[in-house]
Amino acid sequence: MTSKISPPREFTGRHMALVMGLFFGTIITVNLTMAYFAKTTWSGLVVPNSYVASQTFDADTARRRNEAARGWSAETSYAEGRFRLALADASGRPVTGAVVRVTIGHPVNATLDRTLTLTPTGDGYEGETDLTPGRWEARLAVEAGELGAWHRDIRFSVQ
User: Fold this and answer.
1) Mind giving me the DSSP string for the chain?
2) For a 10 Å CB count at each end of the chain, is N or C smaller?
3) What is the pTM assigned to this prediction?
């Protein structure tokens, strides 16, 4: 029995160009994919110093669980220079008689932060502020008398 042994193929400049193109093409594709995800997902600091935040983690978690147990929901909207908040309890009824403060700012930059005390309206709360197009975060602080404080962070976009 005889077997045919073919001579080794020559590695040419064309092969090297193909290897380099595939190598750098992979790197560029990964970079562009990561840039796309960075641009289209919500980003931002959750806490400025994770070590300091870890010192009160258990207490913060218990507070969040108590607030979540209320079943409240919040919906925000912004149009014509007016920031509006619709706040409802677990049964869907509007929450009234609360003092509502909201800090509105960009998720990753505190230089444009502003704090508003919202005034009650018939169906919620509202305040006047000028927001430029882009991503914004509203950090709600609701004081509801004997129920205590309720906090929520809501991110939204202004067109």
Assistant:
1) -----PPPPP--HHHHHHHHHHHHHHHHHHHHHHHHHHHHS----S-S-HHHHHTTHHHHHHHHHHHHHT--EEEEEEETTEEEEEEE-TTSPBP-S-EEEEEEEETTEEEEEEEEEEEEETTEEEEE----SEEEEEEEEEE-GGG-EEEEEEEEEE-
2) N
3) 0.66
